[in-house]
Design a protein that fits this description.
six-stranded antiparallel barrel; Pnp Oxidase, Chain A; single chain; about 15% helix; alpha+beta; about 220 residues
């Protein structure tokens, strides 16, 4: 895979051009990568037996490729192993605020999102697969892959990794307050934005954890 220039934006295509609010779309790598790198849950869409299927799953970005993993027995992982791969659409969304307008029609969300169209292919190279699995673990809790037992041969054989290159991709961002109609500004309803953010609680030890085992610094740092 040839690394793309960090300065070059992703090419706009019909599938990555929104039909509404085109001004919210972004194709520069910084915008796209910042959304992908701030999340670890995506939705994987594909067609199965002529019908659309969308599955939530973990993902991670490494360079210009997304990695997703699952059981070797799952349908998308099996089909991704075919020579032609599996056509997919991967979406990632981050909600940052509830936008409450005076009218119900103008309620909205502040968000950042990325949509990736491409072909998912199963990663066969064992070194790339191992690195991708470590990156997936670290995407949830940075530093965790070095602080846990690596997959053994049996576990690795039961796990498949899909790679999706970032070629046909776009970001979309909505920021700011509500867009109330001028005739509604005098209405006696609250209007504004309720910020939304993800928070982490204190780590809860497993029931069978050895007493006195300290919480790793990388977990404490999540808070």
């Amino acid at each position: 895979m040839t690394p793309a220039s960090a300065a070059a934006p992703y090419e706009r295509t019909d599938r990555t051009t929104p039909t509404r609010h085109t001004e919210r779309a972004a194709y520069d790598r910084e915008s796209v990568h910042s959304v992908l790198d701030s999340e670890y849950l995506c939705h994987l869409g594909f067609v199965r037996d002529g019908a659309p299927v969308v599955l939530p799953t973990l993902f991670v970005r490494v360079g210009e490729r997304l990695y997703l993993h699952g059981s070797t027995g799952s349908r998308p992982l099996r089909e991704g192993g075919a020579p032609e791969g599996l056509p997919v659409c991967v979406t990632v969304t981050q909600v940052n605020g509830l936008v409450l307008a005076r009218s119900a029609f103008h309620h909205s969300l502040n968000y950042r999102s990325v949509v990736v169209h491409g072909t998912a292919v199963q990663v066969r190279d064992e070194a790339e697969k191992a690195a991708a699995l470590d990156a997936l673990v670290d995407s949830v809790a940075p530093g965790r892959s070095a602080d846990s037992r690596p997959a053994n041969a049996k576990e690795s054989a039961a796990t498949a990794v899909l790679g999706v290159d970032l070629a046909e991709v776009s970001a979309k961002v909505r920021e700011g307050g509500p867009s109330d109609d001028a005739e509604d500004l005098a209405l006696p309803f609250w209007s504004g934005v309720v910020p939304v953010s993800r928070t982490y609680g204190a780590p809860v030890p497993a029931d069978d954890l050895t007493a006195g085992t300290p919480v790793p610094e990388y977990l404490a740092a999540l808070r």
